[in-house]
Design brief:
This protein has 429 residues and is an alpha+beta fold. The chain is 39% helix and 20% strand. It has eleven helices and 18 strands. The strands form five sheets. Strands 1-11-12-13-16-10-9-4 form an eight-stranded mixed β-sheet. The protein has a three-stranded antiparallel β-sheet with strand order 5-7-6. Strand 6 and strand 7 form a beta hairpin.
């Protein structure tokens, strides 16, 4: 959420930031609503002063026996009271409208974020690993012989419809091993605190991490008003909502493995085969809460945490910085990690690591107290570390063999009881 004071002080800068995202100027509309709200508040305060003065004079008029003045003042008090109620109600409406407007405006990109209208404007930062050369035509994950017995889309469609999958046997064992390896790495090597959180949250939590109000159609809401989390970014970040933290407690670094739920409302026709884009999936999330001065360094650190998982698995990837037109709504800067999928002969996103500045903190009223200073808003960061299902796809496709078996990364062997491959018949071997 944006600071209205900053918009008042420099509306041109606000509009310039929107222009970098390809949006039209909004400062005049925002400030007109803000001015109307402030005018109503001032008018209500003036009326309140008049009411207070008249109230003091009512008793004096009655004591003097001046019935006419008494009735005039009593009528004036009643009139001012009604005016105050009406103006306060209208001011509250303007305040709610202003808050809603500000909540629907995306975060401002940092100056170093590259300009661009869409993904074509993204800039590659680095690559790791060399894509394997196959002596056969590599298949997509769902067509690999050893994978087919453990990846059942037909039964999932019978149970739930499209964009769901039932995993069995060796495939789900590898899926579970991936999640465990990610958690162990983040906790043991990267110093993150493992956290378990609900997947059902109150509406205010979704507002806090900017899923609402703009992206309601992308998530699922229960009949009693709870929301299913699209990512544990929602719960992890909101653990500090409404808090004033000691500066010494920062940074707070958390990780969680949860089910995630997304309607994929805007992806009709995209990735309809396989399990690349699902309504229900698992993700190991990373969230950091920092001071403003430390947030950019923390962004680089979190990116390295995600990269380390791919490197442990021996999966080729590239790291890109998203341009202004491809960044997420709440981000001020984002790094995407794209893993090599030989079945598609291309890199596909497997992690997005974003620094949000104080954008989410303002929505959540999450602050910290610098030593000897007044409370200030924290900075929040989030990133996938990694999307488990997409990581499974990458492991299966990169490890596939000509006979339909799959060689598994050494980093997973301890989590699979020493098993090293999925045989062509679908068994762990």
């Amino acid at each position: 959420m944006h600071d209205i004071r900053a918009i008042r002080e420099n509306p041109a800068a606000f509009d310039a930031a929107l222009a970098r995202r390809g949006l039209s100027p909004l400062s005049s509309e925002v400030l007109a609503l803000d001015e109307a709200r402030r005018a109503l508040i001032h008018a209500a305060e003036t009326a309140q002063a008049a009411q207070n003065a008249a109230s003091k004079q009512v008793g004096a008029a009655k004591a003097k026996g001046d019935d006419a003045e008494f009735e005039r003042l009593r009528a004036l008090v009643a009139q001012k009271k009604a005016e105050i109620a009406a103006m306060t109600a209208e001011a509250d409406q303007k305040d709610a409208a202003l808050r809603d407007m500000l909540m629907r405006i995306p975060n401002s990109p940092l100056p170093e974020v590259p300009e661009g209208a869409d993904e074509a404007g993204n800039v590659e930062l680095r690559r790791w690993g060399t894509p394997r050369t196959f002596d056969f035509a590599p298949k997509e994950h769902f067509d690999i012989a050893g994978v087919k017995p453990g990846m059942d889309f037909a039964t999932a469609a019978k149970l739930s419809g499209s964009r769901f999958v039932v995993l069995r046997g060796a495939v789900i064992r590898v899926h579970r091993a991936l999640a465990q390896m990610m958690l162990d790495t983040h906790v043991g090597d990267h110093g993150l605190t493992e956290t378990w959180t609900p997947v059902l949250v109150k509406e205010e939590a979704m507002y806090g991490t900017n899923q609402l109000p703009k992206f309601a159609e992308d998530s699922y809401q229960t009949t009693n008003g709870w929301w299913l989390v699209p990512t544990s970014e929602v719960t992890l970040t909101n653990t500090v909502a409404g808090d004033i933290l000691d500066e010494a407690a920062l940074p707070i670094r958390m990780t969680a493995h949860t089910q995630c739920f997304r309607s994929e409302a805007g992806s009709a026709g995209k990735d309809t085969t396989g399990m690349l884009r699902q309504h229900q999936f698992e993700k190991v999330e990373m969230v950091s809460i920092t001071t403003p001065e430390a947030s950019l360094a923390e962004h680089e650190r979190m990116t390295r945490c995600a990269e380390a998982i791919l490197e442990k698995l021996g999966l080729p990837y590239r790291t890109i910085v998203l341009c202004t037109g491809d960044m997420g709504f709440g981000a001020t800067k984002t790094h995407d990690l794209e893993v090599w999928l030989p079945g598609q002969n291309t890199y596909r996103e497997i992690s997005s690591v974003s620094v949000c500045g104080d954008f989410q903190a303002r929505r959540m009223n999450a602050r910290y107290r610098p030593a000897g200073g007044k409370p200030e808003f924290v900075h929040t960061l989030n990133g996938s570390g990694l999307a488990v299902g997409r990581c499974l796809i990458a492991v299966l496709e990169n490890g596939q063999q000509a006979d339909g078996s799959v060689d598994l990364p050494e980093a997973l062997w301890p989590y699979l009881g020493g098993k090293r491959r999925i045989a062509a018949n679908g068994d762990l071997a």
